[in-house]
C-alpha cells in the first residue's frame, strides 16, 4: 500500500500483528485448559501471592502460609510482577498491589478459617480439588493429625508438587493421598475411592481457584458428587466468578480486564461463571445449602483491614467465595 508521501505502508502493521497473535492465542485448543503434561502458571502465581502476604508486617492482614515461599519455583520471581526484596526482608514492592493479590490473601485466610471450623465440627477427611501448591495438608498436620487429606490435580502438577515437597520438607509425606485427575474428562468418585476416600464420613472439600478454569459440566458434576457422595454435614468451600466477567463485562468488573487477558495468554482462560445473584439457586439445585457467599466488600472487612482500621488494599471485584453444606434432606428443587 502506498501513502501520500510515496512511502510503502506495510500491510501487516505492528498493532495488527499483536491483535492477530492475541486472537490466535485465544482460539487455539491449548488455550482452553492447562495443556496435558504442562504445569499451571496460575497455581504458581497464587502461591507467590500467598508467600508475599505471609510476610505482611501487620499480623491482622498476614496469612499463615509459611510454606508458600518454599513451594514457589524460584525462577517465578524473575518474570513475575511481584518482586520480593530478600535482602531487607521487606518482601513486597509496589507491584504486589494488584487487586487479585489482595483477594488471594483474603481467600487463603477465609478457607483456613473454614477448614479449622470443619475439623472442630467433626470432618475427618479433607479433599482438596485442584490443590496446586496448596500447603494446608502439611501446615495443619499437627493441629489435625487424624484428618485424612486427599489432593487432586492434573498428573503433571501432582508430580511437580511431590518434587517440590521432597525439597521443602525432606521427603514426600506419606499421610496425604495424591490423586491425579483431569476434572474435565475423568470421574472423581472412582479415582477418589481407589485412593481410600470413604463417602460415609464427614468431609470438607476445598475447591480454591479452580471453578472458572473448567467446564460447566465439570463444575456441575463435582458439586453433585459432593452432595450425594459425602456424609450429611460435609461441606465445600469454592470460589467462583460472576458470569459477567467471563462475558467480558469490564465496565462492571474493571480490574478483571488485564487479569482475563493474562490468564488466556498463559493458556488458562476463564471459561465458567455463575450469573450474578443466582449463586444460591445454583448450588441448591445441585443438592447443597448455602452457609455463606462472600463478596469483595465482605472479604475486605474481614481479612484486609489493618490493625489501625485502614484498608490494606482493594479486593478484586471478579471473585466470590461460597461455603455450602450437605443438608440432611436434599433441598426441594434439586434437578
Ligand atoms: C489457580 S490454581 C489453584 C491451585 C490451588 N488450589 C491454590 O489455590 O493454590 C488452579 C489449579 O487447578 C488445576 N486444574 C485446572 N484444570 C484442571 C483440570 N481440568 N483437572 C484437574 N485440575 C485442574 C491446576 O492444575 C491448578 O493447580
TrEMBL record:
It comes from Desulfosarcina alkanivorans. Exhibits S-adenosyl-L-methionine-dependent methyltransferase activity. GO terms for biological process: methylation. Belongs to the UPF0677 family. InterPro entries: Ppm1/Ppm2/Tcmp (IPR007213), SAM-dependent_MTases_sf (IPR029063), SAM_mthyl_Trfase_ML2640-like (IPR011610). Gene3D superfamilies: Vaccinia Virus protein VP39. It is an enzyme of class 2 (transferase). Its EC number is 2.1.1.-. Keywords: Methyltransferase, S-adenosyl-L-methionine, Transferase. It comes from the Bacteria. This is S-adenosyl-L-methionine-dependent methyltransferase. One of its GO terms (molecular function) is methyltransferase activity.
Amino acid at each position: 500500500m502506498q501513502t501520500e508521501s510515496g512511502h510503502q505502508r506495510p500491510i501487516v502493521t505492528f498493532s495488527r500483528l499483536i491483535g492477530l497473535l492475541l486472537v490466535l492465542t485465544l482460539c487455539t485448543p491449548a488455550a482452553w485448559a492447562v495443556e496435558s503434561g504442562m504445569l499451571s502458571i496460575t497455581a504458581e502465581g497464587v502461591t507467590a501471592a500467598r508467600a508475599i502476604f505471609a510476610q505482611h508486617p501487620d499480623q491482622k492482614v498476614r496469612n499463615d502460609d509459611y510454606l508458600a515461599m518454599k513451594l514457589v519455583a524460584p525462577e517465578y520471581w524473575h518474570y513475575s510482577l511481584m518482586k520480593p526484596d530478600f535482602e531487607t526482608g521487606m518482601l513486597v514492592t509496589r507491584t504486589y498491589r494488584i487487586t487479585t493479590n489482595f483477594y488471594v490473601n483474603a481467600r487463603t485466610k477465609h478457607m483456613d478459617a473454614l477448614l479449622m471450623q470443619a475439623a472442630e465440627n467433626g470432618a475427618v477427611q479433607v479433599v482438596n480439588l485442584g490443590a496446586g501448591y496448596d500447603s494446608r495438608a502439611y501446615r495443619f498436620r499437627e493441629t489435625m493429625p487424624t484428618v485424612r487429606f486427599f489432593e487432586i490435580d492434573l498428573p503433571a502438577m501432582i508430580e511437580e508438587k511431590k518434587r517440590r515437597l521432597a525439597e521443602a520438607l525432606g521427603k514426600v509425606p506419606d499421610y496425604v493421598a495424591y490423586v491425579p485427575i483431569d476434572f474435565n474428562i475423568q470421574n472423581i468418585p472412582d479415582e477418589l475411592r481407589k485412593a481410600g476416600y470413604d463417602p460415609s464420613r464427614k468431609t470438607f472439600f476445598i475447591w480454591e481457584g479452580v471453578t472458572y478454569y473448567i467446564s460447566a459440566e465439570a463444575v456441575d458434576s463435582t458439586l453433585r458428587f459432593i452432595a450425594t457422595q459425602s456424609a450429611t454435614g460435609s461441606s465445600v468451600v469454592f470460589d467462583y466468578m460472576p458470569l459477567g466477567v467471563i462475558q467480558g463485562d469490564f465496565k462492571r468488573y474493571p480490574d478483571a480486564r488485564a487479569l482475563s487477558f493474562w490468564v488466556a495468554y498463559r493458556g488458562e482462560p476463564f471459561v465458567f461463571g455463575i450469573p450474578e445473584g443466582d449463586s444460591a439457586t445454583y448450588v441448591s439445585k445441585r443438592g447443597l445449602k448455602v452457609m455463606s457467599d462472600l463478596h469483595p466488600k465482605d472479604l475486605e472487612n474481614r481479612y484486609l483491614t489493618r490493625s489501625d482500621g485502614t484498608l490494606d488494599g482493594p479486593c478484586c471485584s471478579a471473585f466470590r467465595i461460597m461455603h455450602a453444606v450437605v443438608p440432611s434432606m436434599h433441598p426441594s428443587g434439586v434437578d
